[in-house]
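As a representative case, the lines below give one protein's residues and fold tokens.
***
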Amino acid sequence: MKYFAVLITLLRDRTLFLEEIRQGIKIESKIVSLLISSSIFFAIYGAIIGANSSLPQVISSAVKLPALYLITLIICLPTLFFFDILFGSTLAFNQYAALILTTVSVISVLLFSFAPVTLFFLVSIRDYEFFLLLNIAILALTGVIGVKLFYQGMQFVTEANYKTFKSREPLVKLDEAENPSEDFVRVKDAIPVEDKSQRMRTRLLQFWLFLYALVGSQLGWTLRPFFGAPGEPFQLFRSEIESNFYQQVIRIIFTVLGPQ
């Protein structure tokens, strides 16, 4: 239960949780707790979407859905870490891992909250294409919310670190003719310098979020099936990787919304 307690703390006071990550407080325990709790929620939702087919598909989807988010994190995390430290970040690798896991955990909770809705449509509507499109929409919605929260979290941590750095700048003596009312001023006030690295890090973060979404969606297509078409034999992975995720989504939309 302690693993879920950490997740509840994140949901109740995200600002405090992010501040503890920034300060490096119990990072390892946070990573383990978020990883375990989010994997359980993903597994539950994966089992539900796999129930559209067979028992082997239920087990397979319960394993593959947590793996999808974890592998995406492993692929994309080094890019964010090394480029961010190149432009002045002082965070450690495990702090970045904890920050991304906060996002993954929020997504897992949101998916778990949609589980009753997904289960209802699974039982009441035997339409494979509709069920597939419904879950793609849910996954996309929760993903967008998670990415937005991660962007806000990174901005919070970056700005907090920047303010801490500025507050530690040394004081310099100025000529009294220049400033007769004060003996000392901060370096940043005496010599204004535009911090271009902060803007560069923001642009880098925006690009990384796009890359993260791109990798995650295509990896999901590669690891399919998660649903399993009714009447077809169980497959752990599809042997052929025709087209791509986005073409398939467009095809499903036209199938569901097109003329019957």
